[in-house]
Design brief:
267 residues, mainly alpha, Helix Hairpins, two-stranded antiparallel sheet
């Protein structure tokens, strides 16, 4: 099975090489990138927002782990600070003892009494030399501890600042996600409103039908009215005036008017 898969893959690679030549890798890379982008573009925005919210929630354990590490470091720094303090106190005492022995040897005595016992000057000198070497070693150790304390304190400060930045960034991400969810909801409402087209064609057809019915009823009413008026008795007498009489009266009236006009002018 594995051998067959290898043969198929080899044949496919050979075919691509024959088609695209040296640009095969470029074409394959572009195809893979385009495919990934197409898959990403097909993912619903709601799913991406939910995924982003889950990723932000996933930061909480990491932040808590950083808080634990910082708390542990702060405890270690506090212990180191206490250790340095004790070391300083011990060095102060050791220095006082060294200075005392040095002062005693400077007197030039042959014997010295310390703690109820007698010591020769040689014994005191040997003890002073040993104490001085130990003092110098512990002083160097104290200096190194102070340097270490300074570094660890700076690291704690930087870690706390980073932690606060992470917490602030987490809260900001949550705010942005909530804003985007609100914007997406508004988009959904707008999209729903855009598709909310009320079809009033049925209403318009019904209105047209009612108008047509009204027009038909009006026609029928007029027809009924016409039929009823044809059965009434006409009370007016018909006119039998002779046209010739009308013409004679018209012209006689015009001649009489002209004569009266001439009489008025003569007067």
């Amino acid at each position: 099975m594995i051998k067959k898969i290898g043969l198929v893959a080899g044949g496919l690679a050979l075919l691509l090489g024959l088609i695209f030549g040296r640009d095969t890798l470029s074409y394959v890379g572009t195809f893979v990138h385009s495919s990934r982008q197409a898959v990403r573009d097909s993912v619903p925005v709601e799913f991406e927002l939910s995924r982003a919210r889950d990723m932000v929630k996933g930061l909480v354990p990491e932040i808590k782990n950083h808080m634990h590490l910082i708390a542990k470091e702060e405890v270690d720094v506090a212990r180191l600070r206490s250790q340095i303090k004790r070391q300083q106190e011990q060095l102060s005492k050791n220095r006082a003892d060294i200075e005392r022995l040095t002062g005693d040897l400077k007197r030039g005595d042959s014997n010295y009494a310390y703690g109820g016992q007698m010591y020769t000057s040689k014994q005191v000198e040997t003890d002073l030399s040993r104490r001085f070497e130990v003092y110098k070693d512990r002083e160097t150790q104290l200096s190194n501890m102070k340097d270490l304390l300074n570094v660890r304190e700076q690291r704690v400060v930087a870690a706390n600042e980073k932690l606060r930045a992470m917490e602030s960034a987490k809260e900001q991400l949550l705010v942005e996600i909530e804003q985007m969810e609100t914007r997406l909801a508004l988009v959904k409402v707008a999209q729903a409103s855009a598709h909310l087209n009320i079809d009033d064609s049925s209403l318009a057809r019904t209105r047209q039908l009612i108008d047509e019915i009204g027009a038909k009823i009006e026609v029928q009413e007029k027809m009924v009215g016409t039929a009823n008026s044809g059965g009434h008795i006409t009370l007016e007498e018909p006119s039998h005036e002779d046209i010739t009489q009308r013409v004679t009266e018209y012209f006689n009236g015009s001649s009489q008017a002209e004569e009266n006009s001439v009489i008025v002018k003569l007067d």
